[in-house]
Amino acid sequence: MNHHGPGRLSALWRALGYLLGSLATAAVALAALPVLVVVPRTARAWASWHRRRAERLLREPGSGPVRVGAWRVLGWLGACVVSGPAFGLVAVLCAGNAVTTAVTVPLWWALPAGTRAGGFGAGVPLTGWGTALTLGTAQFLAFAALTVWLVPLLARLHARTCVALLSPSAAARLARRVETLTESRAGAMNAHGLELRRIERDLHDGTQARLVAIAMRLGLARQVQGEDPVMLARLLEEAHESTEEAMAELRAVIRTIYPPILADRGLTGALTALGARSAIDTTLDIGGLGTIPAAVETVAYFTVSEALTNAAKHSRATRTTVRVARDGDRLSIGVADDGVGGADEALGTGIAGIRQRVLALDGTVHLHSPGGGPTTITVSLPCGS
Question: Cα–Cα distance between 312 and 280 in angstroms, integer?
C-alpha cells in the first residue's frame, strides 16, 4: 500500500496555500510599507507572524517573537515584497493552468470556435476529441508535474529565506543562551537555598524536637527506675512512639531529597507507583529509557509527581495521561489532564517549582492550559548519550 501519495498531496496543498498566502501578504505589506517602516513594533509583530508561518511549513519548532534588529526586519520586508509576488504568481501559473486544462479539455466542444486552441499555447486548433485528448492531456501532465515539483520547492525556499532573515545571528543566539543559562542557574541557586532552609526547618522543628522529647522521657525513666514501675512503663512507651514518629519524619525529609523508590525500582517503577497512588485515573505510557543520570531521574520524578498533584487539587480533572520517552540524549515528559485548564504558574500551583528544577539541568518546560482545558505540561531534559 502506498502511504506516500496522501502525504505528498498534503504537502503540496500546504505549499500552495503558503505561496498564495505570501502573495496576498506581500500585497498588504506593500500597501502598509510606510506604517511598517515608521512603527518598528508593528513590523516586528508582522515579521513574527510570518516566521511562525514559515516554521509551520518547515515543521520546525516555534522560536517565539522576532528579536533581530530593525535593519534585519526592513531587509526581510524588502525580500517579502519581491519574492512573495514572484513565487506566488509562479504557483498560480502552474496550478492554475493545470486546473484550467483539466476542466476545459472534456468541454472543448462547448467552447467558442475561436478559443478552441491548445498545444502549450501554440495555437493548434482543437477540432476533435483526438487533438483535445492528446494535446490537452499532455498540457495537463506538464503543468501538473511542474506544480508538484516546483511549488513545494519554491515554498520551502521562501520559508527558509524568511526564517534565516528573521532569526538571530549565531553571536546573538549564544548571548541569549548565556543569558538564559545565567537566569536558570540563579533560579536554581535560589531554589536550592530555599530547599536547604526547608530541610533545616523540618529537621529542627520536627525531628530534632522529637529527639529532645525522647531524651527527656528517657532521662525521667532513668530517675524513676526501680521506684515507680507504672511511670517507667508509660515513659518508655511514649519514648518508643516518639521514636517511630521521628523515623517517619526523617523518611519524609529524605524522600523530598531523593525518593528511595528511585533507587529501589528505577524511574519506570517509581512512575508506575506514582500513577497507582494518584487520586485520579492515570494512564502511563513509558518507553525504553535506558540509563539515566540520578539528577535527571529525580527531576523527572518530581515533575510527574507535582503535575499529578496539581491535576488532582486544582483542575477538577477525571483522567490524566503521563508519557515518558527517550530520544537520543533527551528525555521527554508529557503530563496531560482533562480538567478545566487555566493553570498559571504565577499563582503558586507548583509549575514554578517544576520550571526551576528543569532549568537547573538546562531543560525546557512548556505549559499549555487554555481556559476550559485541557492542560498539558511538556518537559525535555538532557540525559546524556
Answer: 6
- What is the C-alpha to C-alpha distance for residues 52 and 101, in angstroms, rounded to an integer? 35
C-alpha cell at 324: 515518558
Q: What is the pLDDT of residues 73-101, one digit of tens each?
A: 888 888 888 999 999 999 999 998 888 87
CATH class of 260-382: alpha beta
Q: Which long-range contacts (CB under 8 A, 24 or more apart) does 77-82 make?
A: 77/29, 77/33, 77/36, 77/37, 77/43, 77/47, 79/161, 79/162, 79/165, 80/22, 80/25, 80/26, 80/29, 80/50, 80/162, 81/26, 81/29, 81/30, 81/33
Nearest to 352 by CA among 319, 310, 380, 317: 310
Q: Tell me: the pLDDT tens digits for 196-230?
A: 666 667 666 677 777 888 888 888 888 888 787 88
Residue 240, all three cell numbers: 518508643
Separation CA 61–CA 46 (nearest Å): 19
Instruction: Name the grid cell of 132.
Output: 483535445
pLDDT of 139-148, one tens digit each? Answer: 888 888 999 9
> With contact defined as beta carbons under 8 Å apart, do 57 and 126 qualify?
no
Residue (of 54, 26, 50, 154) closest to 94 by Cα position: 154
Show the cell assigned to 375: 492542560
